[in-house]
């Protein structure tokens, strides 16, 4: 459980840093002071960045259509990798012989 919490913390901190990397200080909204508005702007940057990244079909929304695109690409990747492994090992769809 602790590993999961650490992983979540790393992802959240990484996202915060990545999507707010253009800010030179903690004054994210560039109003001359560091306050709650900066925290709100930083969180909004992360949310917008994650939404843009998750919208893989670029239709302006994150929904099941995006999941379908990812699923199809993953399926195609698995088929391609399987074909490469079979070609490299000389297998032609046979099951390996039992020892």
Layout: helices, strands, pairs:
Blueprint (H helix, E strand, L loop, with lengths): L1 H18 L16 H19 L9 H26 L10
Helix pairs in contact: 1-2
Low-confidence stretches: none
Summarize the helix and strand pattern as letters.
HHH
Compute the separation of the termini in Å.
Answer: 39 Å
Rounded to an integer in angstroms, the radius of gyration calculated over CA atoms is 22 Å
> Which structural class fits the helix and strand makeup?
mainly alpha
Q: How many strands, which pairing sense, and closed or not: the largest β-sheet?
A: none
Strand content: under 5%
Number of strands: 0
How many domain regions?
1
- Principal-axes shape call: elongated
Average residue-wise pLDDT: 86
The helical percent reads 55-70%
- Count of helix runs: 3
From the structure above, extract its key features:
0% strand; mainly alpha; elongated; 3 helices; 99 residues; single chain
In short:
With 99 residues, the protein is mostly helical. It has three helices and no strands. The longest helix is centred in the last third of the chain and has 26 residues.
Q: Could you describe the 3D structure shown?
A:
This protein is mostly helical and 99 residues long. The protein has one domain (2-89). Helix content is 64%, strand content 0%. It is built from 3 helices and no strands. It has helices spanning 2-19, 36-54, 64-89. Helix 1 crosses helix 2. The chain is elongated, with a radius of gyration of 22 Å. The mean pLDDT is 86.
């Amino acid at each position: 459980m602790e590993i999961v919490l650490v992983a979540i913390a790393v992802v959240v901190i990484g996202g915060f840093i990545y999507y707010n990397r253009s800010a030179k200080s903690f004054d994210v909204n560039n109003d001359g002071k560091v306050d709650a508005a900066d925290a709100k702007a930083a969180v909004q940057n992360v949310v917008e960045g994650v939404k843009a990244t998750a919208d893989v079909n670029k239709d302006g929304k994150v929904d099941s259509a995006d999941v379908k695109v990812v699923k199809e690409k993953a399926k195609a990747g698995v088929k391609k990798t399987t074909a490469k492994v079979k070609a490299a090992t000389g297998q032609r769809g046979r099951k390996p012989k039992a020892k």
